[in-house]
Design a protein that fits this description.
Protein name: Facilitated trehalose transporter Tret1-like
CATH superfamily of the largest domain: MFS general substrate transporter like domains
Helix content: over 70%
Organism: Drosophila pseudoobscura pseudoobscura (Fruit fly)
Subcellular location: Cell membrane
Distance between the termini: 30 Å
Structural class: mainly alpha
CATH topology of the largest domain: Growth Hormone, Chain: A
Radius of gyration: 22 Å
Strand content: under 5%
GO molecular function: sugar transmembrane transporter activity
Shape: globular
CATH architecture of the largest domain: Up-down Bundle
Largest sheet: none
Order of helices and strands: HHHHHHHHHHHHHHHHHHHHHHH
CATH class of the largest domain: Mainly Alpha
Membrane topology: Multi-pass membrane protein
Length: 457
Amino acid sequence: MTNICQNSLLQPKTRFQLLATVIVNIIMFGHGVGVGWLSPTLTKIQTPDSPLDFAVNIDEISWLGSMLGLGSLCGNLTMALLLERAGRKFCIYLIAGPNVCLWILIYCASNVGYLYAARFLCGFTGGAGYVVIPIFISEVADSSIRGALSSMLMLSVNLGILAGYILSTYLAYHIVPYLGILLPISYFLANFLLPETPPYLLKRSQLSAAEQSFRYYRNQQTGETSKAQFEELRTAILAQQVQNKTSLSYRDLTTRPALKAFGAAAVLCMGYQFSGVFSFINYMSDIFASSGSVLDVNTCTIIIGVVQIFGVYTSTIFVDIVGRRLLMLMSTLGVGIVCIAFGCFTHFAQIYDLSEFNWLPLALMILIVYLANIGLIGIFFLVLVELFPSKIRSLATSISVIFLSILVFCTLKLFPLFLHFWGISITMWFSAISALLTFVYFLLFLSETKGKSMIED
């Protein structure tokens, strides 16, 4: 009972940490809406009743998907350059602009180039957010609830994806941008409530501002306890600065702990993308159409959106109780096994009459998406940030997310082509092999990072 109370997100000392997490994740909700918007919209614009004045072919569809990866890469690079120089809050404000522009482009689209640009900006929003927001949260959150607060990033994205699925399915094409543009505007305004993170201010020798920020996020305006905790943080930051006195060099990136962390991060990124779970989310309607399911593809897509939320909510509850490693192992093993089953069903459905089991593709995809979201998706960025030593954390996280963005571009570009030329069965088996190989690596080499200090290695 004591442990549950200590981990409560609503305890007085962590309420403003929860508020800050909710505010900064408004933009990730908006990013999710932009991601979810694509799948039902692709179905609409490939019909004779398309709301647009131009048609799209399979090659253009693959580019529409993959532009998210290119935008994400540019967002990663931008944040890597600005994060330490300009601060967390400046970077957080910066993300709002591209998200506003993407909805303007969607509304004004007169050719496919507008949609390419909109997807690029959607990717930029996500790529930037995935770098700065986990670091921001890790620097303001108590270690006892850091996992739960960090998990809210993917919960916000998944809620946004569900909203995007629903809005683009049931509302007219030109109505959705009016609603979507409200999110980055409200996010920008709400962020005026939040101060810069205490660790960043201490690194900039802004002692008074750092103490005020620390008291704000701990909801302790006065008291010796707060003063002692702040001094403890200041001592830890000073010790870290002394340790990191020499500027970051190539050797810091090639130490044994750093290389081990880079190896785990590379496998984490490849497992996330090659297992197909992110591609499934972007092309969900096409997957159900290819699987032979007789259920309405957009209805199935919305159901999957709901399942994502339950999956991430599960990870939010258990991440600080059972740890990161167990959730990752359950997730990768489960996704691998169920992807094999999905591929087998679609393979045998081409040979035998399995029409009485036409509900099975939806049931299997529910399992895949739920299992992916309790670990591989839900706590991906939490684990990524926690893997690296403190001295190289910002740079190493940026490098890893850049690598992830390159993989996102490749997988989203290739996935519709794989579906078209290989068929769904082989595509699903490839995803299964990738997930199972990731499971084996995690079983052998992934260390538990639950409770790890973000200041000390």
